[in-house]
Amino acid sequence: MKISPQVSRVSSIRSVATEYEVSQVIRRVIFEILETAPTRLLHTQTGTLCDRDAQISHFISGPQYKQLLSSALSYDPVERACHIHTTVSRCFRFVMFSHRWGEGEPCLHDIQGRAIYDMPQSGGIKKLQKFCLTALRQGYPWAWSDTCCIDKTSSAELQEAIGSMFGWYRRSHLTIVYLADVAESGSLCSSQWFRRGWTLQELLAPDTILFYTRNWSLYKNIESSNHKTNDAILEELTRATGIASWFFANFSPGVDDARSRLQWASSRRTTRPEDIAYSLFGIFDLHLPILYGESVEFALGRLLGEVISQSGDISILDW
Questions:
Q1: Residue 280 belongs to a domain
Q2: For labelling, which of 193, 201, 243, 256 has a CA lying 20 to 30 Å from the CA of 85?
């Protein structure tokens, strides 16, 4: 009778300690996963813009965290680590948005501290709402759009985002491409999306893409988890871009075959002339300073100089 309370207290202490250790492992995994994800993401369920602290808070205060904490205690250490990583990865999956900018696109300061679902359905806000709802219906908790998830008034943040963007598209679980100028019965090849500079990396980087038409229906109603695996769409993509179909599933960033990569971009345009060079940094896996205000000739000169330096291929100068 005298020993029983002591045994009970020891067991309780061990239980609390184990739960604490598991919670610390979960936190470490969260930080590890978020380290390579965009800094800000839209929460698809609430429509709010969240920084990393808010993303973590959403998860820890929700039922999935409590379930994970409880279930992880029943695993041995090796299985526990795998179980935690798998679960946390699933809870922080994000969708990237690729689209041609139009009028009235919301910036970060337009939506910060507000729920986009409560904002008037007009212009860029309506498009953003549709994107987030589409991601939510696909089962993804987080979404990213270049219109509002970057603080473009911060040169340091803009530099980091441009340098990281190819990797974000590559690590996304899905990239949603919205073709605002393609009707339900229209052709993918006619879209101006294929004439823009930044969309080249947004086409090549992701493993998984779904194309949506003007009314937010799947292109040609092709029900698929990935349009990059559909032969008919791959043929259209090749016609629209001049890029061989195998690149869409097997593209690796780098300076190999640099001349072809430059030719893919040669017919594309950007709003700011120097962006035609910056939009290729990810495709060539280059990390160069972003110097808005420089001439397009200087920006391309820096790009070509670095490609030649790494590849030794001077034939790219006649691309």
A1: yes
A2: 201
